[in-house]
Amino acid sequence: MSENNPVATPEVHTLSVLVQNNPGVLARIAGLFARRGFNIESLTVGPTEREDYSRMTVVALVTSDAVLEQIIKQLNKLVEVIRVSEMERGKAVRRELILVKVHADASTRTDILAIVETFRGHVVDVAADSMTVEVTGKYGKIHAMLELLSPYGIKELVQSGQVALARGPRTITDRSKFDRTPKSQRGTAS
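User: That's the sequence. What structure does it adopt?
Assistant: Structure tokens below.
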């Protein structure tokens, strides 16, 4: 916020939320954001390497550090939430996936294929008048490709939300980081 602009500009923050893999957890977390008026830019959920946990990647627009802290505190109050971790810029690998069906006839296929290859994408389906392309990467890469494909006529597209993992050896599922079992009840290593 500045003196000339009293309204804070929202910043994008990515949260990795490890949750128990139980029915209704997604609805409770989405409901928490809705009730508090927090804006979700994207939300993805999927299984982890442990079948009893799921990982949610929440990209939220946040107006201040205090609001971010409030979101994290509210998430941590939910029983099914094991751990919440912010994926800081430069300290996480982030990707999105897009499938795009673009109008393509015999005269444009070669040009479209050149664009797709430039962005390390893949053609996953071909029909008489279209091609379906898959691309993964950062938001900027995906949208740069879409800008180049749009003159050919985008017929349909679907885009995943962002997924992210922290860089380096640390993981959100390390037992020592979130085990709620009292230390006195844990097995000891010899």
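Residues 176-190 have pLDDT under 50 and may be disordered.
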